[in-house]
Amino acid sequence: MAKNLSLRLHSLRVSFIASHLVLMNPCFADTPPPKIDNLSIIGTTEDTAVITINDKTYYLRENEQTPEGFKLTKIEETQLELEFEQHRSTYPFGFSSRLNAPATVPVAAPPVQKQEISIVPDAQGSYFVRGYIGNNSVRFLVDTGATSVAMNSQHAAQLGINYRQQGTKRLVSTASDVVTAYSVTIPQLRVGEIPIYAVNAFVIEGKQPDTILLGMNVLRQLEMEHQGSLLVLKQR
Predict the structure, then answer these.
(1) How many Å apart are CA 18 and CA 47, to the nearest integer?
(2) What is the pTM of this model?
(3) How far apart are CA 187 and CA 45, in angstroms?
């Protein structure tokens, strides 16, 4: 009788965890466990995964853990694996779950049609393209000579990027000089409608560059080809 009751209680606890994103403490400590309102999988950059929990952004390498108890165990091409309370689950990039939403089992994202953009050069032969940084519409200059995305401090202020607090101060080489810049990470930007995640960018204090540069750290993640005078960017 006692054994059957124990099994029923264990079954109820497993069912509760499966339908709510709430951290459970098996020791029933006096302090209530932290509550998870939302979990989102943003993407990866090289060997680092970007996730948000309760709207806090975390950058994790394999075997690193968030304060809430989510441990990154594996990074794959289109998904990652997290361990929580000794249970491992696979989440596709772009996954988002909120408390009180119906429980779902993360599965691989369905195939989507790849985006492409055809850009007409201006009179000087430069290629400009519309896009987004976060939810802000911006204008990029395609610059194959720039190693990273770069912007001036006025751009950063307009985009709400607190580069002095969030960034790392460095010296970078421009076409004409060596200048002080701040290295920051942009969780997501879009080139047209093509999303790119966890993008390194440099903020240069002053008015230069006057247009946000779309550097090779983004362009190498796209397919580029010339069709006559057009520059075509394709999602990989």
Answers:
(1) 29
(2) 0.56
(3) 10
Share of the chain above pLDDT 90, in %: 40
Element counts in the chain: helices (H) and strands (E):
4, 17
Cis peptide before 26 (omega within 30 of 0): no
Instruction: Report pLDDT digits (tens) over 94-145.
Output: 777 764 444 444 545 555 567 888 999 999 999 999 999 988 999 999 999 9
Which tens digit of pLDDT belongs to each residue from 133-149? 988 999 999 999 999 99
- φ/ψ region of 20 (left if φ > 0, alpha if ψ in -120 to 50, else beta) reads beta
CA distance 53 to 37: 8
Give the domain CATH number at 140: 2.40.70.10
Count of the separate structural domains present in the chain: 2
Strand order in the sheet with 222-227: 116-119, 230-235, 222-227
Place of tokens 């709400």: 160
Domain coverage including residue 220: 116-235
Same domain, 24 and 79: yes
DSSP H/E element including 5: helix 2-19
Express each pLDDT in 207-225 by its tens digit: 899 999 999 999 999 999 9
Single-letter code of the amino acid located at 220: R
Sequence-ordered list of residues with C-beta below 8 angstroms from that of 3, at least 6 positions apart, any chain: none
pLDDT at 93: 78
User: Do residues 48 and 200 make contact, with C-beta atoms less than 8 angstroms apart?
Assistant: no
What CATH number does residue 25 fall under? 2.30.30
Task: Give the position of tokens 């770069």.
Answer: 150
What is the token pair recorded at 56? 């806090």
